[in-house]
């Protein structure tokens, strides 16, 4: 071969290697949250074991060729304490880029419960008895709010910080959660838009989203992993529908769902994993019943449910995984006979629970049809306190908690294998004045 041809061939080969034309060596990784035990082992494609001892980013060591598939699974669950870790965004095909958005979330039975008390401007903190669900106030509870009129609370996925939306002072307060559940202010609250009423944290523990009902916006903040403090991202606040009242991300943190109370619809926004920025997906917003006031998503990210308070119904949707778009399931909306104020799906995705206000003052259980997402009432609703406005379920799925705004207490129920509720002995448990929301750590 002539010298010029050899030079050309060598240059071509060098170019192929330097530019990774064949796609070999693309990596698969993501973020781990909630780990407190030991012994967690992940696998990719039933091999390439990766042992993880702490929360944060991870990357498998072996590269994967362009066009080949990846499939991340849990090979060994953590112990000491025992935990259940779940993988989201875990499978797909390499497309000329590293995979960085796998989310592994670990949970264990709830340790603490936190309640925002709107009128008394404080936060009640309780230790949870994991065998009975009973709530015991932690030392120092209730804790004074750093802002005014706290109405919503959320615990970050790693269980280190509590975030509180303060509708009176238009900000988000941040608290460090101590070993015994005690709260300590982490610093100056972050300013939001007008009337923050709902708060959500993405599964990777990177961003906090706040719904500002009075100016129809969403405030978005990046989380400092060391301190928990918040920095508003570029472009925030983002415009949304009329009177955004509730927020929820899908389990993989790809989309943010917003129930717009005044607009009678649901906005769906794609989340930029690198910046937290929001972009409306095609077709958004999607219609709901009147007065949507709560939204929840099943653990697989397959179905979404919206409580239509004014319409006394629940809208159910299937979620298109590739786009986040919503499609009503057959039979939706489902009549409730009362005004549902708050919804939650159990960790298995088999049941949904609704806190019903108005004259009913009860909690209803619904069985979820796995193939369609349709709802069917499971047993008779059980009594709550007066005006149950917020609901949560223990990560174990064994207990349901409802906060009662007008009776200033928290109802607690044990959950049977059939999803039915039974009031826990000693419940309800006293809270502050006008409790509005509860979060479980």
Description:
The structure is a single chain. With 441 residues, the protein is mainly beta. It has 1 helix and 43 strands. The strands form 9 sheets. Strands 9, 10, 11, 12 and 43 form a 5-stranded antiparallel β-sheet that branches. Strands 13, 14, 15, 16 and 17 form a 5-stranded antiparallel β-sheet that branches. Strands 18, 19, 20, 21 and 22 form a 5-stranded antiparallel β-sheet that branches. It is globular and about 60 Å long. It starts with a helix and ends with a strand.
What is the topology?
Elements: H1 3-19, E1 28-33, E2 40-44, E3 47-52, E4 56-59, E5 69-76, E6 84-88, E7 91-93, E8 99-107, E9 112-117, E10 122-128, E11 135-137, E12 143-144, E13 150-155, E14 161-166, E15 171-177, E16 183-185, E17 190-191, E18 196-201, E19 207-212, E20 217-223, E21 230-232, E22 238-239, E23 244-249, E24 255-260, E25 265-271, E26 278-280, E27 286-287, E28 292-297, E29 303-308, E30 313-319, E31 326-328, E32 334-335, E33 340-345, E34 351-356, E35 362-368, E36 375-377, E37 382-383, E38 388-393, E39 399-404, E40 409-415, E41 421-423, E42 429-430, E43 435-440
